[in-house]
């Protein structure tokens, strides 16, 4: 092998400054491109995993879960179902939230002019609207725990106060028969039970107010939820008349800034379209505040 051939074999492939710069640039770019491609590959794998998790049976079932659930009334230790509420009781605890003030176009209680065209439609049409909801009014006035009988009684009570002559439906014979044993058992309770209960009652009466224990937070939350589901949900469950919906943080944010004292005052005394105590005059101050605590807790 000649000297020229040996020199040509070991000659560098980089002959010009431009080629040297190109090699240096590639030495930096190639690793960066490889890192970017790996990152995109890992990200795509994660997206596929997340998509699979979102489409899992449990996740789908959770998204399809209804907003409200039916709550069954407490039957007590005797096992007998509680007597159905009267139309007046249902009105005061549920319907008055809208019908007492005419919120969202609801015909006001006792307003014959507003009720007249509705009464002309007939009792069956009114009952269908009350049970299934119509326009801004939710089904059963937003109280899913009300029975058909209780809803019908409330509808008849309000219609009759506005000039109708509907007859309040009586409880079914089976319900009356089921409630009878409980009433008989109460009436036949031995005097000894009353005597045994007397000391406990006297002790409770003699206990100083300072010793009264405040309810546990869990109990307060449960009571607040119960009041919300039976009274406040009528407006705050659907956002009727501008009421901030339960859990809507954006809608509750400016109200939370005013402070709890202001929120308590609005709930107790009423504000704008909201009637005092949410339309349920039977609620105590503490119960109203408990419901406010529950609603604000959902929005924090």
Describe the structure.
It is a single chain. By secondary structure, the chain is mainly α. The chain has helices at residues 3-9, 17-54, 57-64, 87-99, 112-120, 123-132, 148-161, 173-187, 191-206, 217-236, 249-257, 260-269, 285-298. Helix content is 61%, strand content 0%. The chain starts with a helix and ends with a helix.
List keywords for this structure.
300 residues, mainly alpha, elongated
Cα(first) to Cα(last) distance is 87 Å
Class of secondary structure makeup:
mainly alpha
Number of DSSP strands? 0
How would you sum up the global shape?
Answer: elongated
How do the helices and strands line up, and which of them pair or pack?
Blueprint: H1 3-9, H2 17-54, H3 57-64, H4 87-99, H5 112-120, H6 123-132, H7 148-161, H8 173-187, H9 191-206, H10 217-236, H11 249-257, H12 260-269, H13 285-298
Provide a concise account of the structure shown.
This protein has 300 residues and is an all-alpha fold.
């Amino acid at each position: 092998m000649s000297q020229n051939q040996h020199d040509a074999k070991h000659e560098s492939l980089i002959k010009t400054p431009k080629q040297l710069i190109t090699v240096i640039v590639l030495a930096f770019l190639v690793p960066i491109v490889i890192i970017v491609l790996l990152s995109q590959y890992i990200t795509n794998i994660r997206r596929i995993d997340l998509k699979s998790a979102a489409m899992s049976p449990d996740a789908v079932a959770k998204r399809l879960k209804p907003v409200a659930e039916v709550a069954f009334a407490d039957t007590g230790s005797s096992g007998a179902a509680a007597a159905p509420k009267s139309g007046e009781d249902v009105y005061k605890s549920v319907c008055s939230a809208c019908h007492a003030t005419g919120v969202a176009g609801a015909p006001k209680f006792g307003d014959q002019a507003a009720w007249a065209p509705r009464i002309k439609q007939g009792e069956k049409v009114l009952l269908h609207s009350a049970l299934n909801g119509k326009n801004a009014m939710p089904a059963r006035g937003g109280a899913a725990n009300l029975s058909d009988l209780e809803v019908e009684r409330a509808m008849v009570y309000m219609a009759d106060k506005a000039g109708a002559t509907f007859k309040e439906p009586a409880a079914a014979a089976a319900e009356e028969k089921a409630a009878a044993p409980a009433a008989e058992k109460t009436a036949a309770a031995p005097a000894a039970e009353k005597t045994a209960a007397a000391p406990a009652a006297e002790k409770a009466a003699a206990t100083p107010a300072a010793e009264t224990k405040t309810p546990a937070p869990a109990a307060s939350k449960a009571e607040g939820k119960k009041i919300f589901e039976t009274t406040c949900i009528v407006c705050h469950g659907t956002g009727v008349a501008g009421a901030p919906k339960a859990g809507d943080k954006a809608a509750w944010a400016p109200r939370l800034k005013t402070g709890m004292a202001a929120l308590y005052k609005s709930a107790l005394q009423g504000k704008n379209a909201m009637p005092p105590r949410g339309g349920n005059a039977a609620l105590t101050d503490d119960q109203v505040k408990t419901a406010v605590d529950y609603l604000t807790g959902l929005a924090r």
